[in-house]
Specification:
Shape: elongated
Radius of gyration: 25 Å
Order of helices and strands: HEEEHEEE
Largest sheet: 6 strands, antiparallel
Strand content: 25-35%
Structural class: alpha+beta
Helix content: 25-40%
Number of strands: 6
Length: 117
């Protein structure tokens, strides 16, 4: 029984020694809050329909956005899709997307600029 217990202890010690990782660093520095991304398009399911969201970086923390598939009377819905999607896809640390100016409807799309914040 004693040999069995000693074997178990040795096996546990060997297993624990295999877990050490010398490459682990601990730091207090936060990652950069600037998101670097390329333009992208996403299908967005909202209120039972799928719409097309296109967005691209325009400047520091600023994005050019458009929502396709909505009509000219759906400004409120287009803003909701754009700002919530920006928060999900591009904003760091759970920030929400915020509209920068009134959106405009042209060419079958709602177009706007938004930023994280």
């Amino acid at each position: 029984m004693q040999k069995h217990r000693l074997g178990l202890i040795l096996a546990m010690m060997l297993g624990l020694s295999a877990c050490s990782q010398p490459d682990v660093r601990v730091t207090r520095d936060k990652p950069s809050s600037q998101v670097v991304m390329t333009p992208r398009s996403e299908p967005i399911f909202y209120n039972g329909k799928t719409y097309r969201l296109d967005f691209a970086p325009k400047g520091p923390n600023l994005f050019e956005m458009s929502v396709g598939g909505m009509g000219p009377t759906q400004q409120k819905d287009a803003v909701a899709v754009a700002t919530s999607s920006l928060g999900y896809f591009a904003c760091p640390d759970g920030q929400k997307g915020k509209l920068q100016a009134n959106p405009a409807y042209s060419g079958g799309k709602w177009r706007m600029q938004a930023k994280c914040g």
